[in-house]
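Subject: complex prediction, re-run

Hi both,

The earlier run crashed halfway through, so I resubmitted it with identical inputs.
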Amino acid sequence: MNDTICAISTAVGIGAISILRVSGNEAIDIVDKIFDKDLTKKRSHTINYGHIIEDGKIIDEVLVSIMKSPRSFTMEDVVEINSHGGIATTNKILELLLNNGARLAEPGEFTKRAFLNGRIDLIEAESIMDLINSKTESSRKLAINGVEGKISKLIKDIVDKLIMVNANIEVNIDYPEYEDIEIVTQKEIEKISKYINKELTKLLYESENGKIIKEGINTLILGKPNVGKSSILNKLINEEKAIVTDIAGTTRDIVEGQIRINGILLNIIDTAGIRKTEDTVEKIGVEKSIKLIDESDLIILVFNNNEKLTKEDIDLLIKTKNKKRIIVINKMDLESKIDFDTFKEEKIIKISALEDVEELKKEISDIFKLDELNNKDFTYLSNSRQISLVKKAVAKAKELEKALEDDIPIDILEIDIKEICEILNEIIGESYDDKLIDTLFSNFCLGK
Amino acid sequence: MQYEVIVVGGGHAGCEAVLASANKGHKTLLITGSKDTIAMMPCNPSIGGSAKGIVVREIDALGGYMGKVADKTLLQMKLLNSSKGPAVRSLRAQGDKISYPKEMLKLLEEHKNIDIIEEMVEDLIVEKNKIKGVKLSTGKEIMCNAVILTTGTYMKANILVGDKRTVSGPKGTRPSLYLSDNLEKLGFKLLRLKTGTPPRIERNSIDFSKTKREDGDDKLYTFSFDNEPYYTVEDQEPCYLTYTTEETHKIIRDNLDKSSMYGGFYEKLGTGPRYCPSIEDKVVRFADKERHQLFLEPESKYYDDIYLQGFSTSMPYDVQDKMVHSLPGLEHAKILRYAYAIEYDAIDSRDLYPSLETKIIDSLFTAGQINGTSGYEEAAGQGLIAGINASLKLEGKEPLILKRDESYIGVLIDDLVTKGVKDPYRLLTSRAEYRLLLRHDNADLRLRKHGYEVGLINEEQYKKLITKENNINEIIEKLKNIKIKDEKNINAYDYIKRTEVSINDVKSKLFKEYNELELQQAEIMIKYEGYIKKTKKEAEKMRKLENKKIPKDINYDKIPNLASEARIKLKEVKPENFGQAIRISGVNPSDISILSIYMKRYFNEN
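This time it finished cleanly. Structure:
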């Protein structure tokens, strides 16, 4: 059977208590050796008060929970120790566990065992990873949505429908002489492929929002040097993270900060002011900025009210044309030298960042419909592996439509349908792929 | 007298096994209950059908006889699914129940390496888990080096009609009473299976005007790659179509308690086939269906029985009369032979290696219904493989194991040894995941080389194959270099991919006469190129897994973390490789990953 593994399963140093988790055949015996009461006689699912001791000396006052196999997360015997101590005490207890026969868990090993022992399916396993990493309340809600298997159900439903069609096609092939069995027509397959397209596209759309909730909106603040980007950033995150000065080019690093608007995380990136420069250190920053345009969800493009627009300003307007963006005219407290006609077609936000940025915040919230997003009960895919598989399935569904147009015989279309099934099955972990499991579990954080 | 190979049973599996072994030069004895039952068709009078027709061609490609004999004796021929894609087309012939067995018996009797005796085998002679011979019901012993059991439905056969259960083989023949008990003693697990057959009606008592006539195709076909058609379009016998009525269903419902299957007369009944339910089953399970299709098929040119396909039942005779008389056109029909169900013993096919040799007794092979299958074609395919592999074993050579991506026979045998059966197993196209590669049109291209290598395909046949292959490649290469007038930047090869274009539209530009089958083959390969590639890629993945061998001495009890169901299944099946392991139901991906981790360690340590 499995050896016994242990790990600290709470973030070290944060919070009043730390939890150490032990799982495996000898979990109870090992903890019993360092606990001052007899754990071997305790019933499953009990919490036991006592002390961790070493050579008769009390290390910590703890609560010990016992969950016996198979009624535990890993389906093995699991013991959890709630310790009150800080980092040093928690590490001491971990050391005691290791000295008494437990092995330090590999990243994701508890979840891997839960998966391998049939306790959770693949989607649940991935959701748990997200749960561990989730930063805000909304994100936690979504992670739980995944754990409860909503997506699994949705995808299983689609797969079931596809399998139904294929089964019918098979009957048509194997019993061709039976005229009264319903014959699957191209039209029917067309209907199915449209249905898949619709459902999966919807799922993808909601997943994008799910991603926003979970990972936040990557927001890039862009503008020439000295238009007030850092001031806006500082005002938004309410702390002096970026250096604010009047001399062009002082913000050399890409500074990140996070704010929360209606519960949604905004990852704000300040950039080195974009301008033509020979300074190599600053050049790196500029190149990075341009690359970041592609990767961001939102661009806040800042112009200086107090200056005439330059070629660089126009360049930025063109470069960000296809992105979700907010045009901000800053330094409204100073004299207007900017040509507002340039923005005739666009919505602009006029602010003075030194005073307040409330109008900007409201615009961000509006653009992403954050009120709605936060309250809505989404069905979503929790990570990029799943999203890319669904995208693959949608692409296959499109291939299927093309094949229909080309008048490919139905029994061959069945191959496409089967392929879609297999892709979707991969999401819910029902098809086999040697590599998948290894990569998946190595992505898990230690201790869960 | 000492034989090299003894085949027990002269059905479709037995005939192919005997011929394969004898053609490979081995002195072979066929033991049958009666010569009259050799190659008999006790159920439907047809050979081929969806998937099965492809099997017949595969048998022919490998050097078997079913297709050749069927071609000579058929009453009607159809290409099924001709309106669907090329992968699912399949030939079906109405066979002649008199001339088919006669023709086959002639082949056996004329063969210098074959002896036939009419006896019942009741036990096997085994020494140190190796077969040594067979023991007859008379007590006589015959020694040999290998035995192939093709006992069909004869082991402990019972005929069921209404509340009557009679100890008997099909058509009142002698069953084998003790062989299955003796197999059990040797360590085989037994299954009790059941199948049925419908009533036969006197031709002259049917009013065919109330039925729909179904003719054969007006194009001529042969199963065999070596034959020219023996028949003409006109001399094919028609079949007829009729339907059950509300009246029929009422009679069935009112008399359900009299059916062997529903009457509850017996505590335990064999398991019948899911795909071929009795008419009682159909009426009960599909209660909302107003009518069921029935086919009236001629059994032979030489007698008057009409086979009522779709109407198998285990009702008592008087109820059968009423049921038949409720059918349009059969109001005054005379039943010549009543329908019955038959129960028999089979072995658990997971006790077999993919060579069809048993894991329990060295040099003992089994094929056909004894392995839990149903159907003449399935039986013949296995018989051929068992015959080939028994011979190869005698010759000290590696067995011929067909892959799932190269033949339906491979799919069939892999399913048997990997998954086992619960009800009689019939081949379906859906069982073949790579069926686009397993077409009836390319069976020779897929398998003739194997036939040649094992010595059942001669030089002349092989040369013919090579010529065909070369011509197909030549056509394809030429097409790539032919420009199409009025079409810019497109060669004939890509042009053919268009729905509305056929290879015949461009064949004049090939400047050489190719035969129709070669052109057709090239066309299929071009038109479905994308899908064929896709399927080949899938097959390649599977082959990789199959190349990951699992050592025979692996101890599944020593592998930590295996789910207990998987552990039991793996111990039962003892898969030879990962490809096979994955296909075992109850073995999940997580079990495979655990097995794979264990194996890595295993190989590192050893």
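Residues 1-457 of chain B form a domain with the FAD/NAD(P)-binding domain fold (CATH 3.50.50.60).

- K.
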